Amino acid sequence: MKSNNRYLAVFGSLAMLVSGNALAEQDSVRIVKTPGFSALPVLVMEHDKLFEKHLEKRGLEGVTVEWQRISGGALVNDAVLAGNVDIASGGIGPLATIWSKTKGTALEVKGIGGVTSQPINLNCRNPEIKSITDLNDSEKIALPAVKVSIQAVMLQMASAQEHGMDDYTKYDRYTVSMPSADAIPTLLSGTGAITCHMAAEPHHTIEVSSQKVHTVFNTYEVLGGPHNISLAYTTSRFREENPNIYGAYVDALKEAQQYVTSNKKRASEIYVSMNKEALTAPEIEALLDNENIIFDITPLGTAKTVNFMNQTGALDAKIESWRDMFFPEVHSLNGN
Fold first, then answer.
1. How far is CA 213 from the centre of its chain?
2. 322: domain CATH number?
């Protein structure tokens, strides 16, 4: 009997220790969800409460989850630096920028891992534009932000490959800042100044299915393989002070990515229900059969992109390995 009591006492002490560790972490988590197809795993995570599920598994069922919708990498990064957001997601450009800015500080921001990978396509209306070298002063390329968006950076990388680093900005003068929602109808109408668009899915499918445009190149060709179009990231301080919350997010993201890959029909329905989208759920489901669209936590295409941005002066920091910019939980993966 005394032996049993001793075991119960030890067990109770361990339970209190685990509970105490859990309670030492934040009682709420604020997560950014960016709009668009690239955020699909994060949307599934929110819709099916996968983060809450994994928090509960770690004894953190009391932690509340707040989802914030923020558009634009600069605004997301401002929210992270101001302490208004705990976990963010966005493109490699915003992640590289905030990592470079905070590198070596207690707040240093690093990547948790990839969310979605897919190519960005240069779609043009003029049938005479068969390669990047055919672009001329009569062409105008729509992209989210000239010079600084990942679309603009990829265009610069394509230019550097074709003409050398001295001419990496050769095609910048043809670019125009314009949201995709405006670029698509302008491009397809054939009446506006926009003749080309750097488009990712689902906008790429909308454009090419019209048969009014053709694809000149895609960014997988530029980088020589897949690259993340969306990544998750947070501060070193948040990860260190909230290891169980951080771990729950990683587990939830992985589960969401696996779910999207194996349950395409329902994932498409979730996406359409949570986004104002021109395509139907069956059309989104068809996109998920595209082998170029990858839902996996492995960082892809990061080192080449970041070091190019360093070469052009867009970033102060340079990386020796992609692992420099990501937390250890993904270091064993076959990233690049």
1. 26
2. 3.40.190.10
